[in-house]
Amino acid sequence: MASTADFDISQLSADQQEALQQYTDVTSQEIMDAVPLLQRSQWNVQIAVAKFFDGEGPDLVAEAQAAQNHTPRASARHENLQESFLEGGPRPSSASRQRPEPAPRVVPQLPVIYRPPFLLTVVFTPFQIGYRVFAGVIRFAIYILSFLPRPLRPRAVTSSIRRGWKAPSERRVTLPKETAERFRREFVEEYGEQDLVFFDGGHAQALDAAKKDLKFLLTVLISPEHDDTESFVKSTLLSPEVVSFVNDPANNVIVWGGNVLDSEAYQVASEYMCTKYPFSCLVCLTPKEGSTRMSIVKRLTGPMTPAAYLAGIETAISKYAPDLDGVRLERASQAVVRNLRSEQDSAYERSLARDRERARQRKEAAAAAAAAEKRALEEAEAATRQEELRQQWRKWRATTIAAEPNAGVRLALNMPVSLGGGRELYAFVECYNLLQEPLPDEKVAKPDGYEHKYAIQIASVLPRETLEPSEYVTISEKMGRGGSLVVEDISHDDDDDDDDDDDVNGE
């Protein structure tokens, strides 16, 4: 460890000194190099260790924090003369503008079916039958009058045709998605195919989508019984400039439409205090009023020209779009920081996993080496013990072999089966060197539990046949009255391939 004379550790806080100590204990890096790396890692020991072992790339955390600190502020909001007239007079400046009213989240409530007592049902049954007969007559009359030209139709007949000859209370209450599908189907049937894209869910789902994706929600409520509905839809809402603007992905607009004859749209109209049709309002997230608050930033009521309708939407979007852009940038920077933290944590975990794997491999290698050394020692000890037993056996066996006859005397030795003729010959050859020396006076005992394996084999020359050390076959049975035998060394302990051949002549 380098000296700390060039750096005063006392300038660091207690936590920083502790982090420095932990880091240097792991990496053994000099203090002059460790302090800058810890500073770049926000004094996080894990991140610093990961950077030390895996290398240090660009500091994305600092870049993300710098981007977050330099989030562009909302530009000054200016109002034009046209908007002032549309709002009924000049509005306050952006510095003193009123807070937008909150946009309620409307969740449709299914109606509770009340079943009257059986007695009341019996009493009012005639009145129900009469009402149904009367309603049937009215519907038949409306059906007959529907064949008249539009200018000659009564207003009530036209309204009834638009809403499918059903009173508001008779429209079946469905789920929000089914209600949205029914609205689009009736809208196409009434005004033909069009390019305007409506949200395919309930108003609460559309509000949640606009809040999550930081978009503007344009809510359009129409009433088939209102005289201005048809002209507004055909001339304003479905005008090419309006359709092109709201369908442009760059403007981030979600359009939700509803028929006030439906339960959900009626509840939306009540919550949003709609008093005049056609009704449109623009809703978006207002971060300056609260990070989770959705507010109504523009109301468009009554009939108006496409230019005025589009101008009101564009003005509101231009006011609040910078705020949403700032939130998007903030979310992006937070996502970058989260991803970076996750990547750094993953890199640190991978580094720890590699260190653990290396430690495991080193431990296994050391254990294997120790086991091999122990096994080699045991094998060497076993070989030494085996050699000692072999030599003891040879000494013992040499004392059990009969002495050779005097020189000049030819003996024909026919070994009995009990002496094991083949084994006696092998023992004679095995102990031949010991038989050339005087036998020891002390008696050598046969080693217990030792089974001797001969390192030689005896074979006849012509024809070639190996004579095994059998206890039941004698040499005379194999050789007859005489022959030439060859002793071959088959010891596996020596790497020398040379054979020590001795000729043994027997008769």
The first-to-last residue Cα distance is: 89 Å
**Sheet/helix structural class:** alpha+beta
The number of distinct helices, counting runs of at least 4 residues, comes to 16
CATH overall fold name of the domain at 81-111 and 173-335: Glutaredoxin
Helix percent reads 40-55%
> What is the total tally of β strands?
8
**What is the CATH class designation of the domain at 81-111 and 173-335?**
Alpha Beta
Strand order of the largest sheet: 2-1-3-4
Global morphology:
elongated
Quote the beta fraction. 5-15%
CATH superfamily assignment of the domain at 81-111 and 173-335? Glutaredoxin
InterPro entries: Thioredoxin-like_sf, UAS, UBA-like_sf, UBX_domain-protein
Biased composition (Acidic residues): 491-507
Keywords: Coiled coil
Protein name: UAS domain-containing protein
